[in-house]
Amino acid sequence: MGLRRYSHNSHPKPKARPSKRSRAGKANSQKRWEEKKTAEASTQTQDPAPPQTAPAPTPTSASAKKIARFLKVSSNNEKLAFNYLIIHRDTLVKLTQSVLCDICNLQKIVVRYEESHRFCKKILLVCENFYETNSEVYSSPRVSAMDSSRPPFEINRVLVEAFLSIGSGYAAMERFCMEVGLEIMAPKSWENHLQGLLSKSADFKKEVLDRSRQAVREAHMEEDPTIQNDDVLDICISIDGSWQMRGHASSNGLVAAVDVLTGLVLDFEIMSKYCHMCQMQSSNLGEDSPEFSDWQNNHIDTGECQKNFEGSSGSMEMTGAERLFKRSIEECNMRYVTMLSDGDAKTFQHLQSLNVYLGIQLEKEECVNHVAKRMGTGLREKVKQCKAQKITLGGRGEGALTDNKIDKLTSYYRKAIINNIPNVKAMQNAVFATLEHCSSTDQKPKHSKCPKGEDSWCFYNKAKAKKEHPKSHTEMSLRLNDTVYKQIKPVYQRLATKELMERCLSGGTQNNNECLHSVIWTKQPKGRLVSRSRLEWSVTLAVSEFNMGV
């Protein structure tokens, strides 16, 4: 570590006030921590409260509800344990200076270190007079392992897992050790611990998903008491794919199924077109050689090959969704009868053609956020089309359709849908009300579709309800001229059909899927190609954190 130089002639500069962003981040972090502690505390056995005691408030945020549901089905009361600490060697020396030796009964105890196992040391208390050992202990317990007489020490495994969980690898651990002054783990040891973790990935994945599925089942049974615990459960899920590499040439991709009611991940599928061992042997033996063909067949038969997908990267979502649907009854005892998606018709049409559930028609619901994006896209496309036809919709003219206005109209469209669920007719009426309102003039007011009454957001109808004279339409913050109105009305008609509005009745979004992807790519950053097993471990960690908070 480099030495830090301080000036003896100057006073320390006072710390600047933290930025608004920093304060907000700290507040959000504290809120998540409090929610997590509340959820953990709720699972622990407590003495019955006296009758007059007010009940504890239930978690209100989506994250707190998810964590609480997940912990209901925990096999034990898991909680974050602070088992490790970093201690300086001199501190142990000072601690033992007043300790009496069992042999000579004098204060002659010294600390010795033997058998260095990277982050674990064997600590001995030795008599300085007779060089006899009074006591000895390892600084860490060993990993519980039934298949080894000398399993690795827990601290080494924990630190490898910790660096993996933050999306880092051996180089980051090496740098950390150099900066802190710790003994550096050998690359071979890192690899051994990594393989040890990956070998447990299947068991870890099964435990996480089994408990998630049980939590989802209990939530649906609470909603519908007629459901029995062993019934095949018909549910609505949101499906979305993500890719490790940006662009359309990723070798790794994944698809996750999230229960819409609870927001818990039920299942996921990792797809990979890459196997490092296959590439190495292909280079050594020749891709078209009989030797490579024999080796590859054996490699696949033993289950060591990391490649499990052939085809374009773009088709990974469709293939992954197919695999999830086909195993939903066997592994989850559930049927995914309704699918909330982002509007990509290929995946939905492919699943419909498979007839996975033999006669049960797959229904589709739209993500409201993605539907709203179509409005913005449609309006921008209309501006481009009109420009090609020498019709100007944008610019600085009065009532022109600018990018800022498109963003606002998109927001109005989304609110019109959300605020009028589950009335399809009201949703359609509210969508057109935003267009008519913004294109109104003093000479031609168009507020028949706007809400009536004194509480209306429409200034015109609000003034009429109060028996006041409405202000001029020229004072509206968003105005559209007649040319813009006529050109964009077909876009509104296309995006306000009864069929589309019916698919938005749940008001569901794919926010949970997108949040999950964010957690995953934090643990396994994009742009860094890894094996399927390594990616599956990172995804399982992310799902565990996303569902239960740890």
From TrEMBL:
Disordered as annotated region, ranges: 1-61
Residue intervals passing through the bilayer: none
Residue ranges, compositional bias (Basic residues): 1-24
Bias (Pro residues): 48-58
Domain Mutator-like transposase: 86-458
Name under which the protein is recorded: Dextranase
Native source species: Frankliniella fusca
